[in-house]
Amino acid sequence: MSKKQDLPPTAWAVLGLLSFPGERTGYELKKWADSSLRFFYWSPAISQIYAELRRLEELGYAASARSGPEEARAKRRYAITAAGREALAGWAADTADAGPPVLKHGLLLRIWLGHLTEPERLRAAVGDHLERTRSELAAVREAVEHARKVPQWTFPELALRWSERQHLAELELAEALLTDLEELEGLAAPDAPASPEAL
């Protein structure tokens, strides 16, 4: 098995962050992941970022150097190597199926178990979700505007614009869910859900 096949997606994501111009510290990579990757993939924990940076250095895909005495606090900055750029380009151009999107919707898990709680609690949870999604949408739009000002970020901007549309769709779905819950208000709730075999 090749090195390329051995790497998890998170490693490619970290290497991808390094593929844009400039050198960055692990902390800077985390901040960038929080303001871009998390809107359509996920943002690795800082410990994961440093673990992947070590792995990428061992493979020769990244290189690092400590800052000099001119900085009050020494920092290690990372950059992609030629080998890393070549490997990343190969991975990005891979025509193999990237797999289905993974959806883990905590709110929907609670709705699925709605027979165990009061309707007003479910409505409140959906309301909180709507508020949070609106806040996230504002953050995505801010990231889109920021990316639009950087010529090298054309493709990150496309990904963020997709995320903007996804958040708008999530708002629409949550509003419809709220309507569905309100329509159930007048119906007598069953004591227990039907068994899966009965569905």
Q: Shape from CA axes? A: elongated
Q: Estimate percent helicity.
A: 55-70%
Give a quick account of the main beta sheet: strands, pairing sense, barrel closure: 2 strands, antiparallel
Structural class: mainly alpha
Order of helices and strands: HHHHEEHHHH
Average of the residue pLDDT scores: 89
The number of distinct β-strands equals 2
Low-pLDDT residue spans: none
Radius of gyration, taken over Cα atoms and rounded to an integer in Å: 22 Å
Strand percentage: 5-15%
Distance between the termini: 44 Å
Number of helices, counting only DSSP H or I runs of 4 residues or more: 8
Q: What strand order characterises the main sheet?
A: 1-2
Description:
It is a single chain. The chain is mainly alpha-helical and 199 residues long. It is built from eight helices and two strands, in the order H-H-H-H-E-E-H-H-H-H. The chain has a two-stranded antiparallel ribbon. The longest helix is centred in the C-terminal third of the chain and has 31 residues, at 154-184. The mean pLDDT is 89.
